[in-house]
Design a protein that fits this description.
Length: 291
């Protein structure tokens, strides 16, 4: 009877030990549990960790971001059921968990637009008439050779339908010759020529035919003269069709001609201010586009 009781107790003990051993975590479970808990913890999740378990003896290898993370991993491993021993061979690497550099977004280069070629210059041809209005009075008696005078372009000039020289452009000229007529002999002479024209911010040098007028002496004091400007105006206007210097245009009118000196018997060539004169280009003029 006593033998049977001992046998039963032995069987119960064996069953208990078997049940206890079956409930003990195996090495794979220990390893997986430690890795899962390390990956879930915010302090240790950036670790590059390898976990090995052999009959409850755990070995840790790899790198951790901070000493705090290393300590916490050891705590997680030791607290794991079934762990009997721990060997920590991890090292601290501060670069673990650092934010990866963000590559800049590619910069899209703006599509280059080929600039339009500049328009070609306008060429005002030789023979073009420039009608100008004088800004001052000119005289064979009072003007001096080499003297500069100013005028404005009275009529616009176009080239192939495109405006080249707008009306109102400032024109400069020079008195080529100014000779007063003598009382008895000699001739009065007044020759003019244009030298430049300003269009916008550009000033162009120009060449024109000399515009001249000559009044010859009568040879005696009692020579007939005409007072006033009517006859003289007709004379100057007549020069537009030919004669020395290719003439002063018809726009001059009767009131802008030669003024006679009835009391002295001496005529001088007089061109009042605001007189319209016509000059002819003897060289082509190249005008920049957009002037």
């Amino acid at each position: 009877m006593r033998y049977r009781m001992q046998l039963c107790l032995s069987l119960i003990l064996l069953v208990a030990l078997s049940v206890g051993c079956s409930k003990r975590p195996n090495d794979d479970q220990i390893k997986n549990d430690i890795q899962t808990k390390v990956a879930a913890d915010p302090d240790t999740k950036d670790s590059d960790l390898t976990v090995a378990s052999n009959q409850g003896k755990v070995e840790l290898q790899g790198k951790v971001p901070t000493p705090t993370a290393r300590t916490k991993i050891e705590q997680i491993a030791k607290a794991e059921p079934g762990v009997s021993d721990l060997d920590d061979e991890t090292s601290v690497d501060p670069n673990l968990g650092a934010a990866a550099p963000v590559s800049p977004a590619p910069v899209q280069q703006a599509k280059q637009v080929e600039p339009l070629p500049p328009p070609p210059p306008l060429i005002v041809p030789t023979g073009t008439q420039l009608v100008v209005r004088t800004g001052q009075a000119l005289s064979s008696k009072t003007s001096q050779s080499g003297q500069t005078f100013l005028a404005t372009l009275a009529q616009p000039v176009s080239v192939n339908g495109k405006p080249a020289l707008p009306a109102g452009s400032t024109v400069s000229g020079t008195v080529v010759t100014a000779t007063a007529k003598g009382k008895i002999k000699g001739e009065g002479q007044l020759d003019l020529q244009l030298t430049s024209i300003s269009v916008g911010s550009h000033t162009y040098q120009i060449q024109t035919a000399v515009l001249g007028n000559t009044e010859k002496g009568k040879g005696k004091r009692t020579a007939a003269t005409t007072g006033g400007g009517a006859a003289g105006g007709a004379l100057i206007g007549g020069l537009a069709g030919g004669g020395k210097g290719a003439g002063i245009g018809a726009l001059v009118g009767a009131g802008a001609g030669l003024v006679g000196g009835a009391m002295t018997g001496n005529k001088q060539i007089e061109i009042p201010a605001e007189s319209a004169l016509s000059f002819t280009l003897t060289q082509p003029l190249t005008v920049k586009p957009g002037s």
